[in-house]
Input
Amino acid sequence: MPHLTSTDIAGRIEDLYGAPLADLATHAQDRPPGMLSALLGLHHGLAFAERSITFHRDRLAQLVHPDRQIGAHEVTHVLDCARRLAEAVAVRDAQAATGLAVLQSLGRIAAPEPFPVPTPDAAAPPLTATSTAPSR
Output
């Protein structure tokens, strides 16, 4: 399964709805919750997880920098940061997998064909009940 980023998800949502993400977000605010709201929420969660990964990865790199000494107090910070990084990666992976599955199940369709208007010549004959069973 390919790994999608929030940018990939945003592009697919824009392709699906044919409008920029900012316009779609404005449009979704005025409507009851639906598929668009769900997709925008999924995108938001994925983008937040990616920012969290970047933050915790950078913080962990600072904490374990070769020029720094790691004492007993710093170990708890290193472990906490590593735990938070792992959680953010798990959230990102779950959001990306869900986003990919949902977006693959959706597709843009052409406008529906108008229904044909029945003409008086094509009117169906009236239905009549012709039962051979005796009535009760």
